[in-house]
Design goal:
By secondary structure, this protein is mostly beta strands. It is built from one helix and eight strands, in the order E-H-E-E-E-E-E-E-E. It has one helix at 9-16, and strands at 6-7, 30-35, 66-67, 70-76, 79-84, 87-103, 109-129, 141-143. The strands form two sheets. Strands 1-7-6-2-3 form a five-stranded antiparallel β-sheet. It has a three-stranded antiparallel β-sheet with strand order 4-5-8, with no helix packed on it. Strand 4 (70-76) and strand 5 form a beta hairpin. It is globular, with a radius of gyration of 15 Å.
C-alpha cells in the first residue's frame, strides 16, 4: 500500500471537460480527507474513498474531511496555477500519512493526492495543513 503524491490522471481530463470550478466565491466545494499509511492513493485514484481514511470515532475528525477555501486560478510563466488557504483540523486525535483533495460538489471526483513524507500523530491538538505560497513553480496545483 502506498500514498503517492500526484495530480490524479482523471482530474487532468475532467479539467478540460469543465467538471471542476476553483473560483474562490462561486466555485465548487473541494475537501481534504486524511488517510493512514495503509491507504492506497495515487494517479489512478478517481474518487474520494473511505478505505483507510483516518477513523472518525472520538477523534474530532469527520469522515470526508474538511472543506477547503479556494484560491482563484491565475497564470504566469506559461503555467496555470492555484491553491487553497491553509486548513486546520482542530483538537484532533489521529495518525495520518497523507490526504486526498476531491470535489465534493461534483461526484466526489479526485483532484490530487498529498503524501506528508512522514506519519503525523496528534493527540487533542490542531493539525494544520499548510499549502505552498501561490506561484508558477510551487502551487499545489499547476498545469504547465
Amino acid at each position: 500500500m502506498a500514498i503517492v503524491q500526484t495530480m490524479c490522471t482523471s482530474f487532468k481530463a475532467e479539467v478540460a471537460q469543465a467538471l471542476h470550478n476553483f473560483t474562490r466565491t462561486t466555485g465548487n466545494v473541494f475537501k481534504l480527507a486524511l488517510y493512514t499509511a495503509d491507504a492506497t492513493l495515487g494517479a489512478d485514484t478517481t474518487v474520494y474513498t473511505t478505505d483507510n481514511e483516518v477513523p472518525s470515532s472520538g477523534t474530532n475528525y469527520t469522515a470526508g474531511g474538511l472543506a477547503l477555501t479556494n484560491i482563484t486560478p491565475v497564470s504566469g510563466d506559461s503555467t496555470g496555477y492555484w491553491s487553497f488557504d491553509d486548513l486546520t483540523f482542530s483538537t484532533v486525535t489521529l495518525t495520518c500519512a497523507g490526504a486526498l483533495i476531491y470535489n465534493s460538489t461534483n461526484g466526489n471526483r479526485a483532484v490530487c493526492v498529498l503524501n506528508f513524507g512522514q506519519t503525523i500523530s496528534k493527540t487533542a491538538s490542531d493539525l494544520v495543513i499548510t499549502f505552498p505560497v501561490m506561484g508558477a513553480t510551487n502551487s499545489v496545483l499547476r498545469i504547465s
